[in-house]
Amino acid sequence: MSIEALALKSQHNHYSSMAASVVTRLFDLSSETVRQSLSDFQGVEHRLESVAKVHGIEFINDSKATNVNAAWFALESMNHPVIWIAGGQDKGNNYDDLLPMVKEKVKAIICLGVNNKKLHKAFADVVDKIVDTTTAAEAVAEAYKLGNPGDVVLMSPACASFDLFKNFEERGNQFKRAVFDL
């Protein structure tokens, strides 16, 4: 089975799909069953969830990415210029590991949080445009204004949601609602 045929995109999902297919050999599942499962598997809500494409700009909800490592994998999986919605309640994050990925893929950062100073400090020398917002609707509107056809708006916060939201699900649902309201 070719990688292009896998339902879930990104290198880390490819690795997981390969590992899962190896395990299926232990249970003697047919190659056709495995192929079908891997080609139509739907990911979980709030994890690299494609929400909609609006005027050629794709919006992706990765609200579950509440740490730097998860945000790194989300950014790594992007193949188009990214407007990155990040921020929230910082958990003592060190953003250094994200610098090369942000330099390569991110054209603007929309900070969604009460205190965005640490994000500004980490990425001010890397990204020309950093905007502060305090609601999902405002973040989506700002990202949409900065976007061009072919861009991706990726909400992958790298932070907890508790400064503005009850949990990551509420943050993700408000993001999706704001996208649908565009």
How would you explain this protein's 3D organization?
The protein has 182 residues and is of the alpha/beta class. The chain has two domains: 3-40, no CATH class; 49-180, Protein-Tyrosine Phosphatase, Chain A. Helix content is 40%, strand content 18%. The chain contains seven helices and six strands. The chain has helices spanning 11-26, 31-40, 68-76, 99-105, 117-123, 136-146, 168-180; strands at residues 49-54, 57-61, 82-86, 106-112, 129-133, 152-155. The protein has a six-stranded mixed beta sheet with strand order 1-2-6-3-4-5, with helices on both faces. Strand 4 (106-112), helix 5 (117-123) and strand 5 (129-133) form a beta-alpha-beta unit. Helix 6 (136-146) crosses helix 7 (168-180). The chain is globular and about 55 Å long.
Topology overview:
Blueprint: H1 11-26, H2 31-40, E1 49-54, E2 57-61, H3 68-76, E3 82-86, H4 99-105, E4 106-112, H5 117-123, E5 129-133, H6 136-146, E6 152-155, H7 168-180
Parallel strand pairs: 2-6, 3-4, 3-6, 4-5
Antiparallel strand pairs: 1-2
Helix pairs in contact: 6-7
What keyword list fits this structure?
6 strands, Protein-Tyrosine Phosphatase, Chain A, 182 residues, six-stranded mixed β-sheet, alpha/beta, 18% strand, 7 helices, 2 domains
Summarize the structure.
The chain is α/β, with parallel strands linked by helices and 182 residues long. The protein is built from 7 helices and 6 strands. It has a 6-stranded mixed beta sheet with strand order 1-2-6-3-4-5, with helices on both faces.
